[in-house]
Amino acid sequence: MVIGGAGYIGSHQVKALDEAGYNVIVYDNLSTGYRDLVSVDNFINGDLGDKDKLRKVFSKYEIDAVMHFAAFIEVGESVKDPSKYYKNNVQKVINLLDVMVEKNIKYFIFSSTAAVYGEPEEIPLKEENSSLPINPYGRSKYMVEQILADYDSAYGLKYTIFRYFNASGADESGLIGEKHNPETHLIPLILKTALGERDEIYIFGTDYDTKDGTCIRDFVHVNDLARAHIYGLERLFNGADSAVFNLGSEEGYSVREIINRVKDITGIDFKVIESDRRAGDPAVLIADSTKAKEVLDWEAEYSLDRIIKTAWSWHEKEAGNTKS
Question: What is the value of pTM for the model shown?
Answer without folding.
Answer: 0.95
